[in-house]
Amino acid sequence: MNVQERVREAAARRGVRYIQPVTRSAAGGVVAAVYRQVERDYGALVPPFSLHSPAPAVLRASWSMVRETLVADGAVSRQLKEAVATAVSRVNTCPYCVDAHATTLYALDSGRLADAIVAAQTDTVLDPGERAIMHWVSQTHRRATGEVLAPPFPAAAAPELIGTAVAYHYLNRMVNVFLDETPLPARGPALRKAARRLVGPLLRSLVTRPVAAGGSLALLPAAELPEAFRWAAGHPTIAGSFAGVAALIEEAGQAALPEAVRALVITYLDQWDGQDLGMSHRWLADAVQPLPAHQQPAARLALLVALASYQVDADTITAFRASHPDDAALVKAAAWAAFAAARQIGGRLAGDQVAAVAMDT
Q1: Which of 4, 125, 158, 343 has the most crowded Cβ, counting Cβ within 10 A?
Q2: Is 66 in contact with 81 (CB distance < 8 Å)?
C-alpha cells in the first residue's frame, strides 16, 4: 500500500467510535462496490458512509439515500440541496454534518448560505425562495402533527428536497452516535469558520462534477414504495431508492431488535411532536420499564437514536453489546431507529398534500 492509499484508508476511518469500519483494502463484494461508487460520485470515501460497512445492506441503503437525493443531478441545484442538508444537520445538533455541508456550500456560493444557516440567521437570506425553504427545514418537524408548513417549492422539486431532508435526518443520527464532533482540523467556532472558508473552495471541482441519477439502484432490491414515502412517487429514481432502502433497513431492524422494542419506538415516534427532549433520561427510564430486563438496553439505544441521538454514550453502547457483541448488530439497530425517525419526519415535511405548493416569489 502506497502513501496515498494509506492516507485514504486513514481518512475513511478517522473519528469513528464504537465500531471498526471495513478498510478499503479489505473490502470485497458489495462493500467494495459501494466504496467504489462513493469515491467516484462523492469524491472520497468518508466516515459517514464507511461507518455503515459492518452491515453491508445498511451501507448500500445509506449511500443510495444520499446519492440519489443530494448528489445526483436533478431539477434542484446541488447548492440548494446542500443548504437543506446543512439546515437539517443544525436542527439535529449534528456538528459533524453541519461542518461538512457548510464547507461544501463554500465551494458553491462563497459561504453566504453557510454562514446564515450555521449562525441560525436564515431570515437574513436575501433570496425569498431560499429563505422560505430554510424556514421549512428548520421548523416543520418541530411542530405537532397537523401544524406544519406547506412545502414552499414546486411539486417537481419535492422528491429531491424532501428526500435530502429525510436522508440527513437519518444520517445525522448515525453520525451523532458513531463519529467525533467535526471532520475539520479545527476546534472552536471561529477556527471552524475559518477552516470552512479555506477548505470549501478546494472542493469545487468535486462537487460540481455531473453525477447521473440512478447509479445506486443496482445495489438495492426491487421493492414496493411504502405509503410513508409517497412524496417520492413522482420521481422514479428517488422512489426506487427509498423503496429498496426501506426494505433493507426493515430487514436489518428485524434482525437486530426484538419486535417489542421496534413497536415501542414507533409508539414514541407517533407521540413525539419533534421537540428536544432535554438532557434528563427520566422519560427513557419510564419508556423501557414495561419491557423485560434483557430487552431494555436495546430499547434505550433505539429510543435515544430516534429521539435524542446526541445523547447516546459509551454506557448505552456497552449495555447493548452485552447481548449483541458484534458491530453489525449495533449498526443495524441504530440504522433502523434512525430511519424510523427520518421516515416520520419526512411525512411531516411533506404535509397533508403530496404535491408541494408553488413557491411564493
Answers
A1: 158
A2: no
